[in-house]
Amino acid sequence: MQELRILSPTAILGYGFPMDSFTEGMKRKPHVIAVDAGSTDPGPYYLGAGESFTDFNSVKRDLEIMIPAALEAGIPVIIGTAGGCGGYPHVAFNLEIIQQIAAAKKLSFKLAVIQSELDKELIKEKLAGGDIEPLFPAKQITAEDVDNCVRIVAQIGEDPFIKALEGGANVILAGRAYDPSVFAALAIKEGFNKGLAIHLGKILECAAIAAIPGSGSDCMMGYLHQDDFVLEPLSPLRKCTTLSVAAHTLYEKTNPYMLPGPGGAINLHNTQFTQLTENTVKVTGSTFVPTEEYFVKLEGVKKVGYRTISIAGVKDPVMIEKIDEVVQSVKERVQNNFESYGIKDFFLDFKIYGKNGVMGFFPGIDQRIGHELALVIEAVAPTQEQADTICGFARSTMLHFGYEGRISTAGNLAFPFSPSDCKVGEVYEFSIYHLMRVADPSEYFPITYMQFTNGSH
Question: What is the reported pTM?
């Protein structure tokens, strides 16, 4: 093949895309439709809870368009990081949608399902054998850390996808995947330059976000050749520029020249970006540098408690000026109130929007204050009842807290909602963010096949 064409409909499955853009993409006769269905960006909750952060009906809408169009064109559909996180329940979430679509439209095709959730005993064996290494800033884990995990997934590289394609799959549904591998698998199978294929996948996994103006809800086309690839947005409202494509190449990366992934890294030292037309960019020079041993990335979460929050506004300029000391006094009052009551193991935080609510984690930030503040009072405790208690007490304490210069005694906070407190539920945190050495890139990613005939399987 001299050219391989890849259609990326949307940045994340369920984010949607304009039909006009998708139609334009199909006119270009793609060889594959590939889509990333998840991310760790929404945080650890969804992996731990086994829930999708994308809506069922939104995902179904996208797949109802993509799968029939691909089957009619005789090309595969590849879906990575099913259900947002790629664990067993997340794959089942997407599988249910595909089954509903197949039944409703009486479709006939072969589906490959690739799992990526790993057994804890396997992880402990690998740990004992010295095959697990931390990724900065994570520290080395113990067997106890593994046992405390709710769910652990590993990122799939391109090899299991290639196996599924060789197995005749028309649709591939995969668990947690290295994002570019979903887009690069067919190209690598067909013998294209691996560095260029993965670099192209790195851009396409976010669809039209790499265009100007960027959008995660619009389509992007990738044209891969032996010595280059070309990017083209499929909406007349957007264009790719050398700046937009180069900038997106650095997206989420700490090193601008080496982009690591399963089995190696993309070397960008000799990469060049060239404006071909007003809206297309050509990229050359990217190469793949394999590691001596093959590693896959692990992502695991543990449950740490339950959360309750309360949202309130502050307008009094006197309180705004003294907000830090008021917050500290309220925290001390809450601690004092419950230290003899048996509720000690809790976390209480006040996120202050209008005063570094976003950037407050970083030292040395300019402490500018707005003329009004939004407070998010957050309590995390071992039980939901305890979290409710801590949050409610902190909220009422701040509502009536007396501070120097206070004039009105009717209350310090304005609540936009009633009830004022919201039970958020279970809280998880990432506890495994490590690399695992494997001898075979496909060994821990089993593939099962399902044959659909007129919608039945």
Answer: 0.93
